Amino acid sequence: MKFRRLFVCAFSLALVLLWNLASAADASTTRRQKIEFWTMSLKPKFIPYFQNLVKEYERTHPQIQVEWVDFPWDILQLKLITSIAAGTPPSLVNLSVPWAEEMARDGLLQPVDRLMPTSNPYTQGALNDLRFAGKLYAFPHYSNVNVVAYNRQILDAAGIHAAPKSMDDLLAYARQIYAKTGKAGYAPALGKIDGFMMQEGLPLIVNGKAVFNSPAHMNLIAKLKQTYQANGFLKDKLFAEDNFPAVVDAYLGGRLGMMVSAPTALRRIQADSKEIYAQTDIFPAPIGPTGIADGGWMFNFAIPKGVPAEKLPAVAEFALYLTNDVNQLSFAKIANVMPTTKKALADSHFQSGDAHSTQGAAEKAQTVAANSMEYSRSLYVAGIDDYDELRRFLVKAVEASVTGKRDPQTAMDEAVAIWNKKLVGIR
Question: How many Å apart are CA 341 and CA 373, to the nearest integer?
Answer without folding.
Answer: 9
